[in-house]
Amino acid sequence: MDLALQELAKRMFPLCENFLLINQFVESRSQFKNGLVNHAFAAALRTLLLDYQAMVAQLEHQFRLGRLSIQGLWFYCQPLMGTMQALSTVIQKASLNKFTGSAVLNLLQSQAKAMSGDHVVRSLLEKMTQCASTAYLSILERWVYEGVIDDPYDEFFIAENKALQKEALIQDYDAKYWQQRYSLKDDIPSFLSSAAETILITGKYLNVMRECGHNAQVPMSDNSKLTNFGANHHHLECIKAAYDFSSGELLTLIKEKYDLTGKLRSIKRYLLLDQGDFLVHFMDMAREELAKRLDEISVEKLQSLLELALRTTAAAADPTHEDLTCCVEKSSLLKRLSTLKDLDVSRPALDSNDLEEPISITGLETFSLIYKVQWPLSLIISRKALTKYQLIFRFLFHCEYVNRQLCGAWQVHQGVRKLKMRGTGISRSSLLCRSMLKFINSLLHYLTFEVLEPNWHVMHCRLQTAKSIDEVIRYHDFFLEKCLKECLLLLPEVLKKVEKLKSICLQYAAAAQWLISSSIELTSGTATADNNSVLQFEKEFNSELQSLEPVLNSYSQAEPYLKHLAQWILGVGDDR
């Protein structure tokens, strides 16, 4: 063969090789097991090959008529060289890496951008991308319009973990349902990467509504069909519209049908002791049972007493009181806090000696309330959130109990005032009792009016302006975290000091009533209390109170709210 003609023929060989590669890819990827994207891509390539084969047939016809030379063949084949080579490159990369789904679409898009200098090739690759993405966009459409993942070949960029059930939200402290039931994969189509998070959230919201039996389908029109994507970003506008609808619809459902605000207010009433009359009544009735050791307590008896207290106080008018039950925890507050590793506990943390359970631990230190929450409110008021409420409740409940015991001791002192014991041990005991009452009342005032009420007000205002359920969850979690910290529960060094002071107050309250009563009986109206015992309590209480001041001061620079606590409890900078 003439060398010039031979060289011309060799130039056409790549076209033949590329045809064979493309044809082989079409045959191997035409099965659905390779995924919907590969199937759609193969179908688009098959259409292209049909046009190519039609051209070959026409050239064959010209050849038979003797009208086709090597130069003529090259003239007709030359325009196809670039497109077939570009497609062959895509196919070789896709085959080598076994690409499916998003990876195929990203490969096509990146090759199209790389061929920006060749308008014909770029247009062809963009057309291939559109054809291959049709099936993918159908999966996306069902997700953002119905909250359903219809992805039989695992190509979609959102993964569903069916092992995570919504029931875990009310059972498991570490439940990851909302974060991990649906999650983003690594392979996201580049044309959707900017909206990936919005797409994920939109489907999650729709899914919640569907789980509630609510009609959760986004209203659709011909203009909102996700049939293709392009430079006009119409697909992103459709996704944004679907997000706005699903977010607003779910927020309305949670707030109105399931009365989120009412539920939170009810939890505040009982677990944050906003309505105290039922608690006073319950304490009076359950004092003996709560004073027992943990293994001797009857939770059933406590439950019946709680129900009686709720029915015979103002709480009876609240229908949500039926969601309230009680329990007795197995460990002290300090030890329970140490087991919750996700809490932002300030250092230095307590050592192992601080966490040893007191031998005399009773129901008074471990009593707690349980509040029943159903789906979908469990998204916001989860097991983790309720546990944090319970921690605050246990601290408040015990403070109220200490206050009640000191009030009882104070009443005993008031009963002997007519004996005119000025200057005696009873007089000294009376002053100590008043100091202890000032301490516990100041602490309760701080917890209630300096921490819980203002933080609740801030959260309530934020919830009114929230635009999505994720914002609601974030505001509610922030409220609980802030309350835990400002209630000293995340400051173990300070909390330990306060617990020690409460313990001294309880020991004194128990001893004071006995000391005064026995003194009066022994001396027939000219009694003096055991002065040494009173002095010992006074010394221990004042010493512990004074040791609290430097601890509060050391933390107050990083935690300014502790200055308010110091002012209330210690009278620092304010003669109260």
Can you characterise this structure?
It is a single chain. It contains 19 helices and 4 strands. With 576 residues, it is mainly α. Among the domains are: 3-256, no CATH class; 432-575, no CATH class. α7 packs parallel to α8. The protein is elongated and about 140 Å long. 33% of the residues are buried.
Number of discrete helical segments: 19
Which structural class should the secondary elements be placed in? mainly alpha
The ordered string of helix (H) and strand (E) elements is: HHHHHEHEHHHHHEHHEHHHHHH
Let me know the number of strands.
4
Beta-strand percentage? Answer: under 5%
Shape, please?
elongated
Main β sheet profile: 2 strands, antiparallel
Major sheet: order of its strands? 1-2
Name the poorly predicted regions.
Answer: 522-529, 572-576
Rounded average pLDDT: 85
Report helical residue fraction: 55-70%
- Give Rg in angstroms: 37 Å
What separation lies between the terminal Cα atoms? 113 Å
SSE topology:
Layout: H1 3-29, H2 36-64, H3 70-97, H4 102-114, H5 119-146, E1 158-160, H6 177-180, E2 182-184, H7 196-211, H8 234-257, H9 260-271, H10 277-290, H11 299-311, E3 324-328, H12 333-339, H13 363-366, E4 367-371, H14 383-415, H15 425-465, H16 469-486, H17 492-523, H18 531-556, H19 561-570
Antiparallel strand pairs: 1-2, 3-4
Helix pairs in contact: 1-2, 1-3, 2-5, 3-4, 3-5, 4-5, 5-7, 7-8, 10-11, 14-15, 14-16, 14-17, 15-16, 15-17, 15-18, 15-19, 17-18, 18-19
Domain Gamma tubulin complex component C-terminal: 260-566
Protein name: Gamma-tubulin complex component
Domain Gamma tubulin complex component protein N-terminal: 2-257
